[in-house]
Structure formats: C-alpha cells, structure tokens
Amino acid sequence: MTKLIKYAIGLLLLLLTYSALAVTPDRGGTIEAVADGKKINFPLLKTEMLAKVKGDLVTVTVKQTFTNPHDQPLHATYLFPLNQDAAVHRMLMEVGDERIEAKIQRIEEAKATFEQAKQQGKAASLLTQHRPNMFTQNIANLMPKLPVQVTLTYSQILPKIDGQYELVLPLVVGPRYQPAGAGVPPTPTAEVNSTTKFGQWEIENLPAYPEVAGLNSPDIIDKERVSITVDIEGGLPIAELGSKTHAISEEKLSENQRIIHLAEGKIIDNKDFVLRYRLGGSSTQAGLLAHQDERGGFFSVQLEPPAVPSIRDVVAREMVFVLDTSGSMDGEPIAASKQFMQHALHNLHPNDYFRIIRFSNNAEEFTAEPVPATAENIQQGLRYVEGLTADGGTEIPNAIQQAFAKPAQQDTLRLVVFLTDGYIGNESEVLSQIAEKIGTARIYAFGVGTSVNRFLLEEMANRGRGFARFIDPTEKADDVAIQLAGKLESPVLTDITVDWGDLQVSDISPGNIPDLFADGAVRIQGKYRQSGQHTIKVAGLVNGRKAVLPITVNLPTSSDDQDNPIPVIWARSQIAEAMRQINMPAHLRTETVADSVLKDKVTNLGLNFSLTSQWTSFVAVSQKIVNEHPGQTEHSNIPLPMVKGVTAKAYGDNPQQPVASTQPLMMAQNFSGGATPEPSTLAGLFIIAAIGAWACYRRQGMDHVAQ
Asked: CB 423: neighbour CB atoms within 10 A?
C-alpha cells in the first residue's frame, strides 16, 4: 500500500506541475499567467463590429481596442478571422491624440517599417493576411493606460443561399492541423517576400497559434468583448430576417430598413455570427452593379437559375460520403455528422449507389466497392457510421485520394459529400489535389462546427462545381441535417457561358462559372470599356436542354459615389482568381501563366487598390515615441477562447515546443508541423496513468503473494 501512495504522490506532483502553468483571472478581466515562476501579462481586447448593408452589398468596420492593464509596456499579437470574401481596403490606428491612416506596402516593407517603429519606441500596428480568412494584428509598444485602437474596413457582396442573403461575421480562428512537411520554408531564414521567386511554402506557412482559454483556464477571457450592429437598407421590403447562431434584437425603421443588435449586448467570440434575410418584391434572374472612375469601369452581374419544376434526378448517382473523424470533430460535430448521414442515406434514390469513407490520420472505407442504395445496405451503412469515433489528425489528402482512387460507377454521376470542420493548414495542397482529381464529379462541402474554415470549404465546392453549406452542431442540428440532406440534388443550370455581344470586357472572374443550384446565385465580375446599354446572353443546360437568358445592362459613364465598393470587390475577386490558379496544377490552368506572374498580379492589385493580400500588408506608425525603453518590452499573444462545441481533442501540447514562459497555456499542436495524432486531454492522461499505477501495484502484490 505504501508503494501505491508513492504512485499517487507522483501523480499529484505531476498535476501540480501542470497547474503551475495555469492562467488565473485577475481584476476587471485582466489576464495574468505564471510560468517557470514568472508572471506573464496579457493585453485586453474589445471588438466592435458595424455592418452596413445596402441590398446585397455590405461594408464592415471592425474596431479593435487593445489595452495594457499592467505597469509594464507590451508588444501584442492577435490572431483573428475575417470573411473569406472580405476586401480589406482601409486601416486606421488611434493612440492618444494621434490618428494615423495606415499605408499599404509590400509585406517585407511593412514588416521592416513595423520593426523600426518598435525599436524606436513608437506605437505601431501591422496587419498580415495568412489566408483570405485568417489575419494577425501586431501591436508594438502597447503602453499602460494608453489604449491602441485599430479600425479595419472591408467590403463584400453577400451570397444568396437557399433564397436568402447571408451575412457571416467570423469571430474566432479554430485550430489548424499541419501535416508533416507542410509550410516548411526552403531555408531556416526564409520569409514571405513579395519580390522573391514564388514558393509553395509561402501559401502553406501558418502563424503560431496563441494561448487557448477554455482548456485548463476557462475564465481568463472577458465574456463581453465583442459587440455587433447590422444596419440593413434592403431597397426592397425585408422579410424572414433572423439569426440561428445568436439571439438578436431588431429595430424596424421601415419596411426596407432594419437595425440589428445582439440581444445580450456583448458576447464572447467563440462562434461565428450568421444573419440571413430575404428581400421581397418581384423576383429577378439577373441583377447588375456597376461603377466607373479614373481606374476604369467595373461591373458585377448576379445570375440566378431559371425556375423549373422540382423533379427527382433521372440519372443514377454514386454518392461518396467523406466523414472527418479527426480529434477536432469530437463531441457535437461528429454527432451532427451522424445525424446528417442518417437523413442523407434515407434520401438516396432507388437507382443510386453509395460509399462511406472516414478519415483522420488515414482513410478507410465502409465497403470495397460502391453498393446499391437498398434498404439493407442503407441500414448497414448507418450502423457503420454510428460506430465511428473521433481522434487523430486531419489528413484530408488521404481522404481525397481514397474518394477518387477508383473510377466512378458506370452510368452514374459521382457526387462527393465532405463533412468536416476544415481545421487544416495545408489548404493549397488539398485544392490542387481536387483540381487534379475532380473530372466530371461534383463536390458538396458541408462545414460542421461553429467556426469552421469557410475559405477551404467554399474553395473545395468551387473546384468541385458544387456548393458549400454549414451545420452548427450547437443549434438544432437534426433540423439542419434534415434540410441539408434534401439538397443533395443535381444543379439546375450547368455548363454556363456568357456571350458579351458588342460589350468589350476584360479581367472576368470567376474564370470558370460554377453550376447554379435551386435558390442560389452566382456573381460574375469584370471590367468594361463602353458605357451605355448593352445586351448579353447567358446560356446553359437545364437537365440537358439548352437554356438562354438575355440580359440588358446599362453601364454608367461616370459615378458620383467615390466610396463605391465595386472596384475593390472586383480587385479582391481578381486576387482570389489568381490564387486559385496558383493552387492548381499548371496543366489544368485556364491560361499558361507562371507562378511568379500570378504572384506579381496579386501584389500589384493589393498595392493599386489598397488591399491586404498574401504579399501586401497595412502598417501604421505613430509620430510620437511612447516607450522610452523598447528593448526591455516583452511580447504577448492575445488569448483566444475555445471554439464552442469542440472538445479539448482539437487542441493539445506541442511536443516540439515545450511550454515555456512565453507559452503558458496549451498550444494547438496542429500549428506545429507535427503529424502525430491530436492528443487526449490531461484528464484522460491522468486516468490512464492512475490505471497504470494501480495495475502495477496489483501486479507487484500478486507477485509477492506468489512468492
């Protein structure tokens, strides 16, 4: 028994070692950690978001206020998301009585400007884009009692999904799994640079993931650090307005205008905010937005599918269901995936075939070959799905390889349905692989979670000529599963082309127009040379039959609205199109263009239209010196809340970077570059250790008896 007590004491000491790294709440939301016997201070954050919507155009201002509640200066880094379609075209920094308009620069120049300001003791901010939906805000010389306020402005066109316009304000970056070898620079000193020869690692490289509150210290983040206001001017009567993600209050100014607030006033940023609304009035199948200034003429045409009777597909389908069972899907996400599968399998047509693939570190399949959608096979498939558990890494390339490893079932249309949170860091590898493998198949990407990687999922659907939808597992997942399972039908309008007639256009995006689904829409954007009235013709196939939609467009000679967002939205779409080409095998590109040319195009668009991109950043520097001793200032990350609905399996200790004074909390090992499975929680390790200790004690006791 004495030995058992020794084992218990050893385990207790182990737990005490871990607890020494715990972060504890302090006064007024102040964050303070203790690591290696040293206090570490964290800056505070408040975020105010204002979205002004006109029809289906939105301009969003994101006001971030960084405060240092301690008596020592700090440098701070904040990892945060924005909408994947956001055209970020302005940044303003306010500190003390200074108001500084940020400048757009090549990323290496912006970093150099920021570092110089940091060393000089000036307040500075640097905005860096790592993905279209992932950014870091760096703050230099954040002084006690001298908050730094940074305001970002971005614009986008809201997508029309299932007959409603959808505004998504992402609030937290989830963990990202980084497979072995991804994001490794060619040399130890290499960094992202707009002038160097293009390298794949620049796309893959990810920022360090910050400390996560909610794993071992759930109360260190202010529960009221984000406020949201949405001002909608519909131009038409607004109907069916609501949010399933957050409780909202609605102020009705008129039939066409609403002001939306969070019902709770302020919230913690642990899940995305999604607002949907429908515009009344007569339904149109095309809508035009246009603007002309000294930079030229810009247009955006929205296309909607023709109204056709709802019919069940005649063509047999091979439905390939690909389920993410990695550790980040543990808990509510995998439960929601199982609910979706229950309804999706029951919705199969009698002449369909189906396959089920699960993946984490590897990919495994329910059956060796596609099986007919008989009642018996469906029941066996459901039993297989019900037995799935979540653990391990997120190796999506293995799943794609498995899905396309064999030819499609003869005389069927292959539809590949992904269910995943998209928490990976090797997006370009996945998108390039899909472009290589897709053939005539379609991809339907279903994001499962409260703050999923929408950029990856939307791009997967774009490459696969399908659509992306999202399941919030914390909100009536069964109702959503029923609704979305019924949408696994073929598109209404396919093989879409546009005859521009006598209208001279250039720089069109998207390069390949995606298929149109019922109650959906697609935007075609470009530049025009001649103003005035023109007729263009949109053509496509409806169930194999030719369909034509003539559209009359009236393009302005000049525009009075100098703040019109159409030009920056066009430039943002061109950047997205260039990045799609970069993330595509050269032999599949629409044009024979070298990577370096595409990189230059992205950089120049960023500089000419003041847009953040992979190789352009905003930087702002104060005139005044605020820190007399900048060399003694420590750096600290803004902690992030744990994403709502996930378990601790989505996060874990980084085995290659042991916890140190600058890393007092659990880190997301997904950012480390390691390919080991996502670890269990500390509680699980304790239980295993305790069982081991008890077993060892029992064995020694039995050996003693045997003697």
From this structure: 30
The bridge status of strand 505-509 relative to strand 545-555 is unpaired
Q: Cα separation of 422 and 396, whole Å?
A: 9
Question: Which segments of the chain have a pLDDT < 50?
Answer: 1-31, 33-37, 653-707
Nearest residue to 621 (alpha-carbon basis) of 114, 48, 258, 80: 114
Cβ neighbours of 240 (radius 10 Å): 11
Name the nearest CA neighbour of 631 among 142, 147, 118.
118
Contact criterion met (CB below 8 Å) for 143 and 553: no
Q: How far apart are CA 420 and CA 423, in angstroms?
A: 8
Measured distance CA(468)–CA(445) in Å, rounded = 5
Q: Under a CB-based contact definition with an 8 Å cutoff, are residues 102 and 612 in contact? A: no
Could you give the CA distance from residue 180 to residue 98 in angstroms, rounded to a whole number?
45
Phi (first) and psi of residue 431, to 5 degrees = -65, -40
- What per-residue confidence (pLDDT) applies to 204? 75
For the chain, counts of helices (H) and of strands (E): 12, 37
The one-letter amino acid at 635? H
Buried b (16+ CB within 10 A) or exposed e, 141-159: bbbeeebbbbbbbbbbbbb
Q: What angle do CA 459, 271, 575 make, to 5 degrees?
A: 30
Q: Could you give the CA distance from residue 202 to residue 371 in angstroms, rounded to a whole number?
A: 42
Q: What is the pTM of this model?
A: 0.86
User: Which residues are within 8 A (CB) of 86 and not within 5 positions of it... i.e. 6 or more apart?
Assistant: 60, 132, 133, 154, 155, 156, 572
Tokens of 230: 């949405």
pLDDT at residue number 5: 46
